[in-house]
Amino acid sequence: MYGDFDEDLLKQWCELYERFITKDRQRLAGVIRFCRSERLNEYRLTKHNISQLLANTTLSDDDCLSAYGCLYVLDRKFGHKPHPCSLNGFIEVSLNDSRYILTHLAEHPIAKAIPKSKRFKSNAEIGVNGVLGLRNQWQTVERSAEIEMTRSDVFDVLVDASRKHVKIGLSPFAGIGDMIWRYDSDDVHGGSIPFWCDGAQDEQALWERLSAVLMMAHEQQVHILLLPELVMTEALQIKLGDWLVQHNAFEPNIRLVVAGTRHVIDGNGRNVYSNRCTVLNYCGGIEWEQEKRQPFDLDVEQASVLFGIQSPAFEPTQLSRQLVMRHTALGRIATPICLDFLCDGLWQVMPVDVYFVPVMSKGLSRFNDKCRTVGNIWGAAAFGCNAQMDGGWQASMFVYRPTKDGLEPKEQSPFLFTVEVDIDMNYNL
Amino acid sequence: MNKLSQHRDTYKQALKNSDNQALLQEKSWLTAAAASALLNQDIEAMRQVRGCCADLSALADRFDSTGKPGDRWRTLGDVLTLALESGRPLEQLRLALPATVSGTLLQHIKDQPGITPTQLSQCCDKSASHISNELKKLENAGLIDRLRRTKKHELFLSILGKEVLDTINSQEVPVREEVVMDCKYADPDRLKRLTVFGNPPLPFTRAA
User: Fold this and answer.
1) H/E segment holding residue A328
2) How confident is the model at residue A122 (pLDDT cuts 50, 70, 90)?
3) Which residues in chain B have their CB less than 8 angstroms from residue A81's CB?
4) Nearest Cα residue in chain B from A157
5) Cβ of A80 and B39 within 8 Å?
6) What is the pLDDT of residues A182-231, one digit of tens each?
7) What is the predicted ipTM?
8) Do B102 and B148 share a domain, yes or no?
9) Chain B interface mutation, best of A36, A46, A80, A322, highest count of B Cβ atoms under 10 Å
10) Distance (Å) from the C-alpha of residue A13 to the closest C-alpha of chain B?
11) What's residue A180's pLDDT?
């Protein structure tokens, strides 16, 4: 199915990985450490019988090294062929009732631009994983998850090797107080009532603020504009798309707008919504959409502050099974929404290089901690924009690259901050 | 029936059944096959892909609902992305040419498996940073493997490196003495380098 890698070989590869790496990586790394380099190299160059290795019930050190030789050769051979999975989705294999996807560890342009001496090493480069030195991993994922990864050409303009930075705009242009919040005290679920965002207090004023942000972002040659969670409305988003067609399409400085999120009525049920993030391209077209996957609840105190009611409340959203990612020139990009970035276990195993996170949260310390975690796992970078908060830019946004050198956003206006992030667009496999 | 035809037929079937997931998968497969043929400059494979996909455009116009008006440019971008993100066989060959520093290094690694970058630097009389850059190129092209042992790095040819070097060494190019003899204004050192390891210059490295 994938060049020389037919379905049988992929299954064997996955099985070999599961048995020798997932379940027994410590032993394998130990055997490799004590093996002479010349001998280890012979195992890599010799053709082994995978079926026979898999059939063995007790494994000698020699079997382990043969398996490693196979895994290493498959790993490297796979990386040098043009694969359809770079354009559409992941390679999937079903094995013993489990679902596996093949993920590739690659340096994205933001990580590549950080000098090696200053870059945090990812988990794949240190300890046991560092000894194994494999670039592809077989990951188990839930059967119910709908994983969508396709190629997007929005950043193809950056592939010029002379390009040295990408400019990211973060716009905390509105906050909780700018929106209308509703609740339904008659629709009680387990003692909790639903609440949702029902539009803007003054949509015209909000649009004026947003269009000023867009104009400034265009002038400042911002490539990616990120807006916060739940400060968008359907009408505002249409205006935003129209603005991009009118002012940006033929001079596309802004390549991508992560247009925050909004509550969208979902289905015909009573009080059923989706918390949806729409990402627009430079022509105002929808590039992708991501819906929230985690439930969100307010305790009595929080609900009392927000609505003046003495009851716990919950966000009545249909929890999405979809994880949407795009393979771009800037790496693999995703836009998990607020809590999903913090708590969703599936996002953690996805090979995402750059996260853009719309947020509505009191504090961002948990987000900053999480950035370090995703940075350690995949070497990912993360950018988040919070619904307008007091307390300086630190309370309104987070900017993370896997390095000691932090980046400080520059205030262009009270509603637009920009940050220039170094990139290295040279292609190395 | 070959794999290409199988995928084309699956794509046609997906068009018939409006199976968008299969459509996207098969489109990607066929694009990757085209990219692979282009990368290898394999005339026969290019012919096959071209012939196989010849009658798909009109069908796609009519039945492929996953497409958009800008798809011509997206496909172009797809092919270029695949080419940029894959191993480049011609670049691998170029790196292995005996007249280049990288080719010389490759030959040393073949002759002395487990050699370290410092030893290579001494063998070739080049600076450590020059050797390091060339090794990085060879490693990125998948021609060598680097084994890290404590602080020491040991270098070995990969399977691909071995294959590429064998291909280069097995080229039976007639010695064109008259060409070399004609180069009376050429730098003698460069001429000497071109015949390193006893191999005559390949046709495409002909001395100017």
Assistant:
1) strand A322-328
2) confident
3) 36, 86-87
4) B77
5) no
6) 998 888 888 899 999 999 999 999 999 999 999 999 999 999 999 999 99
7) 0.80
8) yes
9) A80
10) 18
11) 93
B149 and B192 in one domain? no
Strands (E), A387-426: 397-400, 410-413, 416-422
N-to-C CA span, chain B? 48
Q: Could you report the per-residue pLDDT of B64-94, keeping only the tens digit for each? A: 888 888 888 889 889 988 888 888 888 888 9
Q: Does B142 touch chain A (CB under 8 A)?
A: yes
Chain B positions in Cβ-Cβ contact with residue A44 (cut-off 8 Å): 145, 156, 158-159
Domain boundary among the residues B50, B84, B118 is at B84
What is the pLDDT of chain A when averaged over all its residues? 91
Distance from CA of B10 to the nearest CA of A (A): 12
Q: How far apart are the CA of A345 and the nearest CA of chain B, in angstroms?
A: 25
For chain A, what percentages of helix, strand and coil (3-state, to nearest 5) are there? 35, 30, 35
| Interchain pair A429, B142: CB under 8 A | yes
Between B190 and A193, the more confident residue is A193
Alpha-carbon distance A270 to A251, whole Å? 44
Give A-chain residues touching B114 at CB under 8 angstroms: 37-38, 41
What percent of chain B clears pLDDT 70, i.e. is strictly above it?
81
Question: Are residues B178 and B140 both part of a single domain?
Answer: no
User: Does the beta-carbon distance from B77 to A153 stay under 8 Å?
Assistant: yes
Partner-chain contact A428 B86, CB within 8 Å = no
Average pLDDT along chain B: 82
Q: What is the pLDDT of residues A366-390, one digit of tens each?
A: 999 999 999 988 899 999 999 977 7
Residues of chain A in contact with residue B28, where contact means CB-CB under 8 angstroms, are 84-85, 87-89
Phi/psi for B14 (5° steps) reads: -65, -35
Determine contact, residues A382/A335, Cβ cutoff 8 Å: no
List all residues 6 or more positions away from B23 whose beta carbon is below 8 Å from its beta carbon. B11, B14, B15, B64, B66
The pLDDT of residue B1 is 58
Q: Are residues B94 and B160 in the same domain?
A: yes
What distance in Å separates residue A44's CA from the closest CA in chain B?
8
The first and second tokens of residue A363, run together, are: 């504090």
Domain range for residue B111?
A: 87-170
Same domain? B183 vs B111: no
| Identity of the amino acid at A183 | Y
Phi-psi region of A352 (alpha: psi -120 to 50; beta: other; left: phi over 0): beta
**B133 and B74 part of one domain:** no
Q: CB of A117 within 8 A of CB of A337?
A: no
Tokens of B54: 């010849």
Decide: A50 and A16 in contact? Cβ < 8 Å: yes
Chain B residues with CB inside 8 Å of A133's CB? 148
Q: Do β-strands A410-413 and A416-422 pair in parallel, antiparallel, or remain unpaired?
A: antiparallel
The reported pLDDT for the residue numbered A253 is 94
Same domain, B56 and B115: no
- Residue identified by tokens 């990812």 is A122
What residue ranges do the domains of chain A occupy?
Answer: 7-143, 149-422
Contact B78 A428 (CB under 8 A): no
Fold that domain A149-422 belongs to in CATH? Nitrilase/N-carbamoyl-D-aminoacid amidohydrolase (3.60.110)
A153 contacts on B by Cβ (under 8 Å): 73-74, 77
Please determine, for residue A313, whether its predicted confidence score (pLDDT) is greater than 50.
yes
- Cβ-based contacts of A130 with chain B (< 8 Å): 148
